Amino acid sequence: MIDKQTKYDRQLRLWANTGQDNLERCHLCMINADATASETLKNLVLPGLGKFTIVDAGTVCPGDLSGNFFLTEADLGKNRAEALTRNLLELNPDVEGKWVAEQSIDSLDAQFWDQFDMVIISNYVKGYDELVQLLWRQDIPLLVATTMGYYGSLHVIRSETTVVETHHPSQRFQLFLDKPWPELQQFVDSFDLETLDETDHAQVPYIVIYIKLLAQLRASNSPIPKTYQQKQHFKTLIESLSRDISQETNFIEASSSLFRTVLETEIPPSVVEIMKIASKLDLTQTSLFWIYVKALENFASKNEGLLPLPGTLPDMASNTANYVQLQKIYHQKAIKDREAFAKEVQILSASLGREEADDLNLDLISSFCKNSNLLYVSKGSYKQVSEQIVKDCLVPGKYNISAVYLSLLNTRYYFNIFGSLPSIKDLESFTQLAFDVIFKPYMSSISDIPESVILTFTDVLSHNTNSYHNLASFIGGITAQEVLKIATAQYIPLDNVFVFDGIVSTSQKWKIE
Q: Whole-prediction pTM value?
């Protein structure tokens, strides 16, 4: 039998054991068992989603087989949810799957939805607005995946998104070069660059070189290099310390790495804003994330305005003894900061009357300290359209992908009223509905809708199917990706609408507030 470390090796490199554990605890509900649903679930079953439940009362018909690769002729006449569940589970025996043959989601009460960590609506369902409101009240993330012909969209509806392990591409090593602590300063002072022999001089870690030069700048009241010109000057200082810049690898590294390494140690503005939000919250009614943010603010106020040291070091040219010693100094400082932060969590939890044992999760505390400079917070909305999207759509004579989104949204309104997808013969009633529910505040009559929008409506209704497999696969992949971000609590998720136009192969995203 293949163990999980081997089976999930590639994804563990992305989100580690903590992310995998979160994924395996996730229970997902999928509404509808169509092609988009099957492609989404395929991409979640393979990496080891804990459990899924499909809600669909329909039976498999010949039309389902054209775009859904997880339904076969042997499934004809059977319940779609049951057939899709059975076929998907063949992909991964670690996953648990269930199905519910329910014709109307209106008959499913709040207790039914409360068992899920998130819900996906694949394409269209009656009772959509009521379900959105219910899940919003229960604080259950909802993802709405839509395909129609060659067009598709995804809307992530979530009241609040907080991420600690963002894996942000701007992530840099936090080395505290301009604010060395005593043990680090003592290590730096142990190197006398002038008296070292040629071999030892070429083995001095470039962190030591940086700290020595930054001390010289402070002594001369010069600023820490921030601008390109200042860093270029700093580069010349590095080269001046080298005995042969063409041969000493450590000085070559110091010169090439300074732009991403020599940084002023400060709390990033984004984290400052998150701290401000935390200070206004009733922490007795919040998630653990906000307890940690407030504890982080308390930690920084007692630590010269500094965040916890992550403790990780980049590779660098050095002999083993120097590098190991430097690594030990950073590791010990990180442990000390982590313990001090945990103490702040403990004090804060006690003051709030919370169970300290629940809050003092050592894995979470370690992750929070390592990633505290790149925390992410976003407030969501259950609104489906914004004034800006409508105004973009109404620019006369100009194609805009916002018209695609409003077409897909109007299709949802149409389905909710009539229980079927509109076709090209329904263009007039479709346009009238769009005017009534979307455009009316922005124009006096239906004739004011630009011709470009009517043409987009025509394109969408000319292919009134969600069974085109290429679009189902694409939107299913996008949707699964966002589910993985939410389930693993890692990476920054979509915020909050994505639209794809397969005709011209372009996409756009918006934040609807």
A: 0.91
